[in-house]
């Protein structure tokens, strides 16, 4: 393990310790499993809330609230003539000019002790942005578009600069390739310490997918897409080392500028002792089990459509859905329930709520199922495998790599293919058990928590003590 005197700034984004989920669980595993003095810098929304997950003894928690109005500022305002050159460079992200963008971020960082909030909406700033947007839109942005863009940039960026006092650390570890990259790179440059990036899902890909769920103006869509694009490129070029959970992610990272010699795939891991093996026989009607949070990215609507086709061929089949409805997803959950009723699946599809302990949910299935349109490295897959049950999953993130040889993988958003794969197991109990046994063996070999912690311990040591980490050919 790294020396317990190793000091790490551990930056999270919308996850640990305020939200429960796969990334939060990974953060918790790392913080409790590695020795060191951790400062957790959590990027969160505007609302004050209590942590949902525990922190290790001695860990310091600091939270940067995005989109929150600023508190009374004790320092004098920044002069406009100092802010304008920084913003002119920053706005170069609209032309995808990474060098100017990062220098604009750095100059804003140097102004962080001055009051910048009001100046962001100064007429000269609006004019500066309007000139850049006009060239890209082919027309001047409306006043409303310009103000919306500046408000978004101000509400996003200024909280990320509220870093003082900057903790003295030996390593900065960002757990997302998104906004967490900005404070990670700034602190790394300020202190001259290594910057480690870990990606679970591909941040940029997920932001692009999210645009389909919202309806921003053309100017806002353009600004946000290019800002996130440049932030991802900054992450991949400036991180001293990158860990990712799948080869799927690695391809995106290299395409966006990451050096493959500085990337290592480090799969998530679990403690097999927490997932006792299911009985070596199958009981009750043919049953598929889904576990997760009810969220649009999990695409339960496609799963329900697929199970309608399963029911036609296998009327007694059941689908058990285990998991919570996060705040804000109530409407999506209602749409899933409504679709179940529309298809007449009320007797076949059951909403079970959260399972505790979760292994009991996996034990009830003949086969597990994952229908997501985006994933990093879902714990539910290896948990399902660990109890000795096979799984059908969509070809997203690491799912195809993990299920290779022990399950079935189908394209996302394809109910016909998903139904066919589920039927191939639900109509063949012997195949379910045979593949389930192989799945458990694969987890015990490749996806244990002990292995994951050993790899991150070596990476921490390599970066702090030698300034580099070797990547096997």
Regions with little confidence, pLDDT below 50 for 5+ residues: none
Order of helical and strand elements: EHEEHHHHEHEHHEHEEHEHEHEHEHEHHH
How helical, in percent, are the residues? 40-55%
Multimeric organization: single chain
**How much of the residues is beta strand, in percent?**
5-15%
Q: What is the gyration radius calculated from CA atoms? A: 24 Å
Observed structural traits:
17 helices, seven-stranded parallel beta sheet, 473 residues, single chain, six-stranded parallel beta sheet, 13 strands, alpha/beta
Structural commentary:
By secondary structure, the protein is an alpha/beta fold. Helices cover about 45% and strands about 15% of the residues. It has 17 helices and 13 strands. It has a 7-stranded parallel beta sheet. Strands 10-9-8-11-12-13 form a 6-stranded parallel beta sheet, sandwiched between helices. Strand 1, helix 1 and strand 2 form a beta-alpha-beta unit. The longest helix has 21 residues. The mean pLDDT is about 90.
